[in-house]
Amino acid sequence: MFSPGRVREGAAVRDLTLLAGLLGLLLVLCIVLKMGAERAGLPALVGYILLGFMVRLLDHAWGLPAETAGILDFLGLFGVVFLLFGVGLKTDLGGLRAVLGSAGWIWVGNVLVSGGAGYLAARYLLETGVTTGLMVAVALTATSVGVTVGVWDSRGKLTSREGEVLLDVAELDDVSAVVLMAILFAVLPTLQGTAPGDPVGTALRTAGLFTIKALFFGAICFLLARYAEGRITSFLDREGGPDRTVAVSGIGLGIAALAGMLGFSMAIGAFFAGLVFSTDPRSIRDETSFESLHDLFVPFFFLGLGFKVDPMALGGALAPAALLLGVAVVGKVVGTSLPALGIMGGSSALLLGVSMVPRAEISMIVMERGLTVGGGIVSPVLFGAMVLVTLLTSTLFPVLMSWGLGRQDSG
Q: Is residue 373 one of the residues assigned to a domain?
């Protein structure tokens, strides 16, 4: 006898089977892409984004299970958490504190110039609304810590004074971008005219509440690092094996989730979770088992970005992408290099500015939220343009960074 329930159940099993096969294929392809990118000296994220776009084209042509986008989003969330957790693990807090004063001035300069240039370009050249202009401005203030740090680390320059300044400024960029994003989304109803109130007053109240939450979250991280981290790692050291990596990663996910519940980005929470475990040389930062978790989840964040690019909007995104690329380059190079001249030579300041150009993680998180929140804040065309900016800045500028670092070595 015909049973609609059994038909639906069979279709669900078929879709799950197809999804499992697709995920397995994507993991294998990501490994191949990573090996190829390492040989070519390029960041693997470029290949991951392109692969995600190819999956979107496949979905557009033949149709994939409806759950595909949700699965990629879910795994992508873990991806960005593990990405910034790993960055936090490798951070030298002592080195950061030593350069915090000088890095602060550079950070202020590059955020003001890159954000201001981004707003003016979006508002008056792309003729967007005020809210969209602010969204682009916030996205362009961020820097891809992962791309930049990877190049400097491969050249053995991350522990130099310039490398410590670079890391500090890049991290400050991302933290401030998250703060600005939180404030922007808080005043969004007022800016769009859907809720009464004074945008300035709302922004000030949001900033005050955000500061209180940040102090609370910072205090928790400090207490964990000061009093709990050593006991945790000592206990896990006695057990040994990959269980330590899994346990510490689980704690990191918990800290990231707490940050998310407080209104921060889980990505930034994961970064601070990494800092908690970065103070002890026995932490997992040098273990290959953590690299396996990293390689399992991180590609899905970039795959998800590529999957969100609308193929029908890509053609119209070329001209906005060219404009935003120019703004992204000039904003960071000028905004970073000029303040840096006060503490380092001209060539080092220029190299620092070039190193701040790549955009990826936080920038695309901002644009993704603008795309998904509704109201047409970020259109598919604008989102596609920013994806192209990500691809180009993450591909071209690592080459320029590597060349500049090589010249420093030869000089």
A: yes
Burial class (CB in 10 A: 0-12, 13-18, 19+), 39: exposed
3-state SS, residue 143: coil
List alpha helices for 63-187, DSSP H: 68-89, 93-120, 130-141, 145-154, 161-186
In a domain, 6, yes or no: no
Q: Which band of pLDDT confidence, cut at 50, 70 and 90, is reported for residue 1?
A: very low
Q: Are 87 and 149 in contact (CB under 8 A)?
A: yes
Tokens of 338: 């000029």
DSSP single-letter state for residue 195: S
- The tally of domains found in the chain comes to 1
Output the CA angle 276-157-362, nearest 5 degrees: 50
Structural domain contains residue 176? yes
Interacting residues of 258 by C-beta distance below 8 A, sequence separation 6+: 217, 220, 269
Given a contact cutoff of 8 angstroms between Cβ atoms, the answer to whether 54 and 402 are in contact is no
Retrieve residue 182's tokens: 């939180």
Residue 55 lies in a domain: no
Joined together, the tokens standing for residue 371 give 């795309």
What residues make up the domain containing 92?
79-410
pTM to 2 decimal places: 0.76
DSSP tag of 225: I
pLDDT tens sequence across 244-292: 777 777 888 888 888 878 766 677 788 778 877 776 645 555 555 667 7
Q: How far apart are CA 107 and CA 168, in angstroms?
A: 9
- DSSP class of residue 376 equals T
What CATH code is carried by the domain that includes residue 135? 1.20.1530.20
For residue 377, give the 3-state DSSP assignment: coil
Cα(337)–Cα(356) distance, integer angstroms: 10
Six-digit token string for 273: 């979770």
What distance in Å separates the CA atoms of residue 125 and residue 158, rounded to the nearest whole number?
Answer: 37
